[in-house]
Amino acid sequence: MRGRFYMVHYRPNGLDSARLGVVVAKKLAKRANVRNLVKRIAREIFRRHREFLPAVDLVVRLHAPVAKATRAELNLDLLQLLQRLPRQ
């Protein structure tokens, strides 16, 4: 699934809860502090909503440059993608 900034790949994992992996390419976020910020935002959204997510393995990738993006836009984009996950 693709949002404005993030792309989410998912696959059922057969466990009791969801797991997360985050990938942020240097091509889209040149500075290390920006890459780390994007990853921290993704992990925090996942942590807050993990209990409501289906049992899937998630890989969250950045697919658009975030130079002009605000934290609120990044949060909203990932939240909308997580809400679109199929429920079992």
TrEMBL record:
Pfam (any one): Ribonuclease_P
Membrane-traversing stretches: none
GO MF, one example: tRNA binding
ATP-binding is among the record's keywords: no
EC number: 3.1.26.5
Keyword annotations: Endonuclease, Hydrolase, Nuclease, RNA-binding, tRNA processing
PROSITE patterns the record matches: RIBONUCLEASE_P
Matching SUPFAM superfamilies: Ribosomal protein S5 domain 2-like
InterPro entries: Ribosomal_Su5_D2-typ_SF, Ribsml_uS5_D2-typ_fold_subgr, RNase_P, RNase_P_CS
Gene Ontology annotations for the cellular component aspect, listed alphabetically: ribonuclease P complex
Gene3D superfamilies (alphabetical): 3.30.230.10
Purpose of the protein: RNaseP catalyzes the removal of the 5'-leader sequence from pre-tRNA to produce the mature 5'-terminus. It can also cleave other RNA substrates such as 4.5S RNA. The protein component plays an auxiliary but essential role in vivo by binding to the 5'-leader sequence and broadening the substrate specificity of the ribozyme.
Protein's UniProt name: Ribonuclease P protein component
